[in-house]
Design a protein that fits this description.
The protein is of the alpha+beta class and 491 residues long. It is built from 14 helices and 17 strands. Strands 1, 2, 3, 6, 7, 8, 15 and 16 form an eight-stranded mixed β-sheet that branches. It has a four-stranded antiparallel β-sheet with strand order 11-13-9-14, with helices on one face. It has a three-stranded antiparallel β-sheet with strand order 4-5-17. It is globular, with a radius of gyration of 26 Å.
């Protein structure tokens, strides 16, 4: 027995030494760059211009091409009036009714072009919640150090700050070596079918290929990641796919006074069992691939036991996965999610319906295909009386952009130049963006917005009291100014 305890002690000691050594010796993956002096910005002027853009209710409609047409044309006019120097060097095209493409020709036609994306449209304000806003939702008010209103964050903040950056660069006489495209769709919140998709098709027709694209996406978070005291700039290198699966259960209709003798034989009963199984037997959660790279990038910058755990995934991965399952957001980052969203059956309380219908929404993690999800549903449901079909409008998960490629390195270098305290790491974009239409046109697509967000700010996204601080908005302008200068320097 003593020998057994001695052996166990040696094993524990060896593990402790290995864990400690791995924790201490795991190198930082943050780029070491010299700080850069950010461009000077007229805070009051840029805030007012953003406020003017927010005041335009550019809400796209899925079935009406010309919904709020006057608002979109007014935004186009505002851009032309606000940024005369930018429009003097950019070639402007209108695509798909209201989509905008700006081309800044490079001095070297052989240099690989790049694309910066944002969208003009915004989501509507939930009816009845207008009075909950501290400032009216389309006021564009500049007050208490913030620009308030729908779109100030998503996504006019990016669009206007890109144009502000180009205006400043053009005024300084800057000429990019490689061509820069500014791509502004107008129906991203409705799927981008009339805007970004049409622009992508135009690029394909013209044979335009981009080295990389930067579109809206993950943010600079503060106080969101436990164990990390510094801000974290998570750069989306992939986005989840979107798939809804329709289930139809068929049974013999009849009078409610004579229900089936056993459970699970009625249409509603069969569907209830199927949905319960799908919710219980979800796609597996695992720290692998992109999520593993994210954790291993952040680990050396963390404090306390979080650094120990994330630096030693070879040992603690099962423990970490169990913890990640407990949070909706962390779970969603590690797996294809299953969400029961629609169910319907019957139209009279004394009739057993012959049909029960349900829709289950899946957000596909990279590596999971829509066909694999349908197979998963059929395997879990395992009932020939239930028909399983893909709903229209699905999209596969995007490919994973490289973190050792020029685009990611450029974003990282730009952030580290302007904000040396920021930890830069790759991440997974949970929602869909316009840039998914450009798979195959760009070598790599990155989803990142230099917007700062604390935990309490996240609910403002598509919610009440959307706003951006004027100080952060200045940072957006400085980021795009520095990024364009870094990516396409004159010879």
């Amino acid at each position: 027995m003593r020998k057994l305890f001695a052996l166990l002690g040696i094993v524990v000691l060896a593990l402790a030494v290995a864990v400690g050594a791995k924790t201490l010796l795991m190198p930082s993956r943050q780029l070491a760059v010299a700080p850069a002096t950010p461009v000077k910005v007229d805070v009051a002027a840029v805030a007012e211009r953003l406020g003017a853009a927010v005041r335009l209710k550019t809400i796209a409609a899925r079935d009406d091409v010309d919904a709020n047409a006057t608002e979109f044309t007014a935004l186009h006019a505002l851009l032309q009036a606000s940024f005369p120097k930018a429009h003097a060097v950019l070639q402007r095209e209108v695509v798909g009714q209201y989509g905008l493409v700006y081309t800044w020709p490079g001095t070297d036609p052989k240099a690989a072009a790049i694309g910066l994306m944002a969208h003009q449209d915004v989501v509507p304000v939930a009816p009845g919640t207008e009075g909950d806003w501290q400032q009216p939702p389309f006021s564009g008010a500049v007050k208490d150090g913030f620009v308030w209103g729908r779109g100030s964050w998503d996504d006019k903040g990016n669009l206007m700050s890109m144009m502000e950056a180009v205006e400043l660069l053009a005024a300084s006489g800057f000429k990019p070596r490689q061509t820069v495209y500014l791509i502004f769709g107008h129906d991203e919140e409705q799927g981008g079918q009339r805007g970004a998709l049409q622009i992508a098709k135009l690029f394909k027709q013209r044979g335009i290929h981009l080295q990389f694209i930067v579109d809206e996406g993950l943010l600079i978070t503060e106080g969101v990641l436990a164990g990390l005291s510094r801000p974290a700039a998570l750069v989306g290198v992939a986005e989840k796919g979107y798939l809804s699966v329709n289930l139809t259960a068929s049974a013999t209709p009849g009078h409610s006074s004579m229900p089936p003798p056993e459970a699970g034989q009625s249409a509603i009963g069969m569907m209830s069992v199927a949905l319960a199984k799908l919710e219980d037997q979800q796609m597996p959660l695992a720290v692998r691939g992109l999520s593993r790279e994210m954790f291993e990038t952040i680990a050396p910058e963390m404090n306390g036991m979080n650094r120990v755990f994330l630096s030693n995934l070879w040992l603690f991965k099962p423990v970490i996965e169990q913890q990640l399952k407990k949070g909706a957001s962390t779970s969603a980052m590690m797996r294809t999610t299953t969400a029961l969203t629609i169910a319907s059956a019957g139209n009279a309380d004394n009739v057993l319906p012959g049909r029960a219908n349900a829709t289950v929404n899946f957000r596909l993690a990279p590596g999971d295909s829509s066909d694999a999800i349908v197979e998963h549903v059929n395997t879990v449901v395992k009932n020939p009386a239930i028909k399983v079909e893909k709903a229209a409008g699905f999209s596969e998960a995007s490919k994973v952009a490289a973190t050792d490629a020029p685009g990611f390195q450029l974003i990282s270098r730009t952030l580290r130049q302007l904000h040396p305290d920021v930890v830069v790491a790759p991440g997974l974009m949970l929602g869909a963006t316009d840039s998914r239409h450009f798979d195959g046109i760009a070598d790599n697509i990155y989803k990142f917005s230099p917007v700062r967000a604390k935990p309490e700010d996240l609910k403002r996204f598509h919610g009440t009291n959307e706003r951006i601080s004027t100080a952060n908005y200045v940072e957006l302008i400085q980021f795009w100014h520095q990024l364009i200068g870094n990516s396409a320097p004159a010879p």
